[in-house]
């Protein structure tokens, strides 16, 4: 029989010294440097043949990025050029720090919507949020806390994405028909639309709806079975640029003598943004607002915006990793640096863009160097094309945004959830409804809370199977625990066993708890095991813990060395029961003999 003194149940503590030494050695390895600067890894094997593929991919992504950047700048409540400011620095920075060749960094519709309420106060808020978001993500990445995103399940992400798509698309419905909406909220946008139908402009409506239909049809062009498939693919990928060019040319041709047939984007500040530190104070309505007050205004978004940014880039990197392991922490470092560097050129927060990443992948990009071409195209657009952007119709930009949002509404994902596990529709529904009718920040928090509640409930109610089993004509209570035990489930195990025994106290005198699936327990569980043994003794019943892990059994044994005899691992259940009742019989016989002797 094992005891505490023989060392079997000795507690194994981590060797801090060896851990520090191994970590220090790891920091000095060349592989650590290449893992933090992936450019050092792929640049050594770069081939001249890759250059053409990267250039083509970068150019194609640029055709998608420029119109979307202008549109998302408007979604954020900023001047269109701010969308372009956010579209180039991330491309260059990700080349150095990014580990996934397909990922394209730029502002997205969700990021634009989340920053909108602060950007409309002054653009300085958007730039400061970009800097603080970058710092937060960078620190989390350096500390290898990419694991945190695992606490957000796919149903929650789906609910958040779909709610954001509905909100963003609804906010553009008025622009699609030539009206100016006073709100970006879901209900307010549709309420304004239906109560101001008389303000619908015919020209804008025809252009907007026609552009939207064109974009949706062009998305299917790549599937044409005849002709040159590569030609059809690139025509499909260039659909955003084509519709913006057509709308701009049409507006320019029809604009005469001050007459504008459509609501136009208007003046865009020409030239490149100055390279300067992000603003830590600003002026609002003639009054100076200090950093502390700006932070107070931003509030919970300081946590929700970095969280959503991380979710987007990690999800995108995994989707396009093609079997490779994605280093979530390194992607966080890359994204953090992109946001920090972007804040020095007046950019709003950025993250991975699924649409542009898909275009990048479909274009055959070979390395992250393709981002340099995309970034260069945005810079040239800022330097030379800002006067042309004046004539971009707002209805055209609205159609680009709505078409992108339609692709985010993945109804087939809901079908999959329904088929696999219908209970997962509950966190989806909670997230979707709260994001849609409350706010994106609090919506995703509510979804995470629901998910964690599920986890805690399962932890507090582990799978425990109790049955009355007959072994060698002896009735025993056989308890099988199918998952690990912790403090949340300790009392539950005790309640189930005692309740079962209360109804069978005269039939059973032995309870066997099988614990081969219990890897470890904590102090609370150990105390409840000891308490359970005492309660069972009051019911004239004995307890045996069979096939328990040494680590789990050691927690109980170190508390009370006399209880080492509870744990039996070297016998079958038949041998265990047989030996128990033989010993019990001997004890009873010895007790009878003792009574007879004393009576004599």
Descriptive tags:
alpha/beta; Transcription Regulator spoIIAA; 2 domains; five-stranded mixed sheet; two-stranded antiparallel ribbon; 27 helices; elongated
Structural overview:
- The protein is of the alpha/beta class and 600 residues long.
- It folds into two domains: 342 residues, no CATH class; 136 residues, STAS domain (Transcription Regulator spoIIAA), CATH 3.30.750.
- The chain is built from 27 helices and nine strands.
- The protein has a five-stranded mixed β-sheet with strand order 5-6-7-8-9. A two-stranded antiparallel ribbon has the order 1-4.
- Helix 24 links the parallel strand 6 and strand 7.
- Helix 8 runs parallel beside helix 10.
- The longest helix has 28 residues.
- The two termini are 37 Å apart.
- The mean pLDDT is 83.
The geometry reads as: elongated
Number of strands: 9
Query: For the terminal residues, how far apart are their CA atoms?
Result: 37 Å
Average pLDDT: 83
Main beta sheet: strand number and arrangement?
5 strands, mixed
Q: State the strand order across the main sheet.
A: 5-6-7-8-9
Approximate helicity band: 55-70%
**Helix tally?**
27
Report the sheet-strand fraction.
5-15%
- List the uncertain runs: none
Number of domains: 2
**C-alpha-based Rg, rounded:** 33 Å
Structural class: alpha/beta
């Amino acid at each position: 029989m094992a005891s505490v003194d023989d060392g079997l149940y000795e507690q194994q503590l981590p060797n801090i010294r060896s851990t520090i030494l191994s970590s220090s050695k790891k920091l000095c390895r060349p592989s650590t440097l290449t893992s933090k600067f992936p450019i050092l890894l792929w640049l050594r094997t770069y081939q001249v043949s890759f250059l053409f593929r990267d250039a083509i991919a970068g150019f194609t992504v640029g055709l998608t990025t420029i119109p979307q950047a202008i549109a998302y700048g408007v979604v954020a409540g900023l001047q269109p050029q701010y969308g372009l400011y956010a579209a180039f620095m991330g491309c260059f920075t990700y080349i150095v720090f990014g580990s996934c060749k397909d990922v394209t960094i730029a502002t997205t519709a969700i990021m634009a919507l989340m920053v909108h309420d602060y950007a409309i106060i002054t653009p300085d808020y958007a730039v400061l949020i970009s800097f603080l978001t970058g710092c937060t993500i960078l620190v989390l990445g350096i500390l290898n806390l990419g694991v945190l995103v695992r606490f957000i399940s796919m149903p929650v992400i789906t609910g958040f994405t779909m709610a954001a798509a509905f909100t963003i698309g609804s906010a553009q419905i008025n622009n699609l028909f030539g009206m100016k909406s006073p709100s970006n909220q879901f209900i307010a946008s549709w309420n304004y639309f239906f109560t101001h139908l008389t303000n619908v402009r015919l020209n804008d409506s025809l252009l907007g709806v026609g552009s939207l239909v064109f974009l949706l049809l062009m998305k299917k062009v790549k599937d044409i079975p005849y002709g040159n498939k590569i030609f059809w693919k690139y025509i499909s990928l260039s659909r955003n640029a084509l519709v913006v060019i057509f709308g701009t040319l049409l507006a320019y041709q029809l604009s005469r003598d001050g007459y504008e047939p459509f609501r136009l984007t208007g003046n865009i500040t020409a030239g490149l943004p100055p390279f300067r530190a992000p603003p830590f104070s600003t002026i609002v309505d003639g009054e100076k607002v200090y950093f502390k007050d700006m932070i107070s205004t931003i509030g919970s978004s300081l946590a929700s915006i970095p969280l959503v940014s991380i979710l987007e880039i990690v999800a995108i990197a995994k989707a396009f990793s093609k079997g490779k392991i994605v280093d979530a922490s390194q992607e966080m470092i890359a994204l953090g640096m992109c946001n920090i560097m972007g804040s020095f050129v007046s950019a709003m927060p950025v993250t991975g863009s699924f649409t542009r990443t898909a275009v990048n992948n479909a274009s055959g990009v070979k390395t992250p160097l393709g981002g340099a071409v995309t970034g260069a195209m945005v810079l040239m657009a800022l330097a030379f094309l800002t006067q042309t952007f004046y004539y971009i119709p707002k209805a055209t930009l609205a159609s680009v945004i709505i078409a992108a949002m339609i692709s985010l509404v993945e109804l087939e994902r809901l079908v999959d959830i329904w088929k696999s596990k219908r209970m997962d529709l509950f966190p989806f529904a909670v997230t979707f409804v709260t994001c849609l009718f409350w706010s994106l920040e609090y919506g995703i928090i509510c979804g995470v809370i629901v998910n964690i509640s599920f986890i805690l409930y399962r932890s507090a109610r582990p799978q425990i199977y109790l049955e009355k089993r007959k072994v060698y004509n002896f009735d025993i209570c056989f308890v099988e625990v199918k998952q690990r035990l912790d403090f949340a489930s300790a009392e539950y195990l005790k309640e189930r066993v005692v309740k079962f025994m209360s109804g069978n106290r005269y039939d059973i005198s032995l309870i066997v708890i099988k614990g081969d699936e219990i890897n470890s327990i904590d102090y609370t569980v150990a105390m409840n095991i000891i308490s359970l043994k005492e309660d069972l003794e009051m019911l004239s019943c004995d307890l045996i813990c069979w096939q328990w892990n040494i680590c789990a059994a050691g927690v109980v044994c170190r508390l009370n060395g006399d209880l080492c005899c509870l744990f039996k691992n070297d016998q079958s259940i038949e041998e265990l029961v047989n030996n128990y009742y033989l010993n019990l019989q001997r004890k009873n016989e010895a007790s009878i003999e003792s009574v007879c002797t004393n009576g004599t």
